[in-house]
Amino acid sequence: MYNRTTGSFRSLKANDGDVLPSHRQTYPAIPTFYRGIETQFVEMTVDPEVAAAHLPKPLVADPSGAAIGIALKIRMSSYGPFNEAGIHLKCTLDGEPVWYNSHLFLNNVTAICAGRERWGVAKEFAEISFSDHENVRVCEVVKEGATLMRLSTTWDALATPDELPDITPNMNLKIIPRADGPGAAIKQLVEYCSEEVGESTQMSGLGHVEFRSTAKTDLAPLNPVALGRGFYHRGDLAELHGKIRLDYLANG
Description:
55% strand, globular, Acetoacetate decarboxylase-like, mainly beta, 2 helices, 15-stranded mixed β-sheet
C-alpha cells in the first residue's frame, strides 16, 4: 500500500484495505461530494408484472407500477464529471415503501467501480449526452451502438423541494461472485445514503421517457403505460456510507 505522506510502499496488513487496487485506490473514501448536479425526473407508470421481474426478493412491486425515469448531468464530483441516467421502481420491503434502482447508465469508470463495489448500484457504461432546445432538455443514452433510453423534461415553473419525487429509501442489490466456484461470495440488499448540502433550485413541467432494446440489453418492456410530471433539480450532494438492509448469505 502506498503512503503519500512518506512517499513509500508497505505491505498490506491483514486487516487493512477496502478498495481495489489495494496499492492505489480507484476512488476516494466516504464522504464523497457532488457539486452542481442537474437532475431530471419523470414520473411514470410501468407494467407491474414487468417491474416485479426486475426486483430481487423479498422486494414486492408496487401494484400501481409507479416508477421514475431519471437523468443527471454532474459537472463536478469526487469521481470527476459524468452523465448518468436510469430507472427507479417503487416497491415494498416487509411492508415499507422503498425504491429499487434497477438500471443505471453512466460514462465514468471510476464512478461505476465505486457504485457497484460499495453499494451494489446496477451501474453500466454507456454514452450519455444532453441537449437543450428552448425550454426542453433531452438526455439520450446510447449503449452497444444503439439508442437505449431517451428522457426529456421542460422547465415551466418554479417548484419547491417537497414537490419533487422522493426516491428514498433507495435499494440496490450488491453481489460479488465467488472465486472458487459458482454462486455469490457477498449478496446483500443495500440502502444507498446521501444528503443534500447547500441551496438548491427546483422546477416543474412536462416529462417524457422512452426505452428501447438491443441484442444484449432489453429495456423496451419497461416503456411507460402512462406518464406523469417532469421535474428539474440543481444542487449539491454529500455521499455517505450505506446501510445493509438484508444479508442473504448470513440469513441462509
